[in-house]
What does this fold into?
Amino acid sequence: MKNILAYVESINGTIKRSAFEVATAAAQLKSKTKTNAIAVIINGNEEIANQLFEYGVDQVINIPSEILQKYSPQAVAKALYQLASAKECDTMLFPASSDGVELAPILAAKFDAGYISDIIEMNLENDDIIVKKPVYAGKSIIKAKVNSPVKVFSLRPNVFTPIKQVSDVKHYEVFSPELSSNDCKTIVVDTVKNEGKIDVKEADIIVSGGRGMKGPENFYLLEDLAKVLNAAVGASRAVVDAGWRPHSEQVGQTGKTVSPSLYIACGISGAIQHLAGMSSSKVIFAINKDKDAPIFKVVDYGIIGDALDVLPKLTDEIKKIKG
Amino acid sequence: MNILVAVSRVPDTTTKILIGNDGKSIDNNNVKFILNPYDEYALEEALQIREKNSGRVVAITVGPTENQETLRNALAMGADDAVHIKSKDENFDSFFVAKNIANYAKSFNPDLILMGKQSIDFDSLQVPSILAELLDLPVITIVTKLNLDSTKVIAEREVEGGKEIVESSLPCIISAQKGLNDPRYPKLPDIMKAKKKTIEEIPAQAFDNKVEVISMELPLRQRLNKIFNAGDDEIKEVVRLLHEESKLI
It folds into this structure.
């Protein structure tokens, strides 16, 4: 095996949490294979590099580039291709974010390499990188490997735990790719943020509502609880299809597949396609008035009761603990 | 405007997955297959663009004989033509699928290539981006809104915690996310008509698979399964457990 490239995402000079997850995974792979783990950041700086060294990577390469000021997948992939070729990287790790999953296959195609997306486990067996990836929205899991010389993977957010393990070697370097503005085949002309909202994909805790919430006007109960827990609000397909909540909040097979530490399902009966999307949550807690609802088969904690009655009391109790 | 829409055949979302005899794929017995839901958004968008701009909508799929059903669904929704890149077996390797679609796209020269952001079987989200590289075309994935004129597209793309407005020239590749539109339901006469249409068959070109599935397993997770009634003390107890036992709040 040659070197490992870990692609680091940042927003306005701040590294995303996923960066530490990807850096840790690269560092762990490196220590088993006696190679170098190289974290790559676009328009970063030494301060960011120092944060990454704390997670065990031994090289951080910064790509300062006017052309890459705005994200354009094909231009980023071209820069990474040049860097990976120059630094002899044959294993590339990306976060399975919306940009990561757009970029990684382009880079894989440049190397004519195999790519496995959204992996939840990575191990070394007889020099082969063996990964696990949920398929059918998590209804089953495949164990798989890449057979081409170059291998590309994207890591599901929130699954790989960042571990501090300061590296002995801390090599910082700047790389200048050969790019022209023609390499930006797409241009981001504007970015709109959902102010004050946490995305279900990135959230550590998700409070989700279903038809048992009885109407969009009652979702403030979930938002109140979410605020106390610093959680994201999620929704079942039924309530998204009914227009109560935006589709960006939908959890399930035709929505988002999530793996938070805690998933609180309120008034969600547990249709098979919903369970598929959230069953890899570490702890599941459900409130439902039907004691026979399928959701209770997959929970750690459950309360049999009307979510509209239970939620205000629950929020109050949690507030007491949180002080 | 000529539009190529790539569609795939996937198990219905209500399917309970069982592992097949080979230990590395699902048991297809008693599974109902459907047109991939995300591809329905792509196809609906293509049909709406055709209705405004004229042109042809061609649905394409890569897979075994059974994929014909999926193309019939696409024809019933309103696709003008259907192309079946026929392989002997089902193959989930994204490079295999992308390369075969690219081969066809090179001869058809569409103004726009649309497809779902992912197939809800292997959930790989790879084909649009690989195709972009193979055809040297711009790509915008996970799109929830699309506006276009004869030379360029402006798309809204879903990203963590918000959206990006992305511009690109034509031709380009777009992958559809839920929210893009409300796909139409085919009417019975259209379903009947679709059954009689000719589907163009092209043998798939074989490539060495880059990804090898070693085995498939069902997720097993032991749950505590502590169920309570909705009394005040019981709510308090659950909060205590979340705090002390699971240490999550």
Remarks:
- The two ends of chain B are 55 Å apart (CA to CA).
- Chain B has six helices and 13 strands.
